[in-house]
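Researcher: Please predict.
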Amino acid sequence: MSGEFMRFRWLVLLFLSLSSLMACTQDPQWTLFYYADSKEIPESVTLSENISGYYATSEQCIAKGKGLIRLSDSGVGSFQCGHLCVATEDGGLTCDSMLESF
C-alpha cells in the first residue's frame, strides 16, 4: 500500500508541476508599439522598430502604453496594440488587428 501511495503522490506532484509550467509559457497575444513624442501614430512606420513589449491581454497592453506616455519626459506619445502579430517574409510585421491610443 505504501508503494501505491508514493506512486499516486508522485503523479500528483508531476501534474501540478506541469500545470504551473504551462501557465508560465503561454504565448503573448498582444504586441505594444510605442511612438515617443508623437501625438499621433506616424503614417509610415516600421512596426518592428517600435516594439515595446508583449502582453497576454489587450488590457495589459493598453495599460502599459498609457503608462509609457505618463512616464515620458514630455508627457506626449502614442501607441498601438497589435493582436497576433507575426513576421513577414520581407522582414516586416503583420497583425490580425490593431488598437490605437485612447
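Model: The first helix runs from residue 2 to 24.
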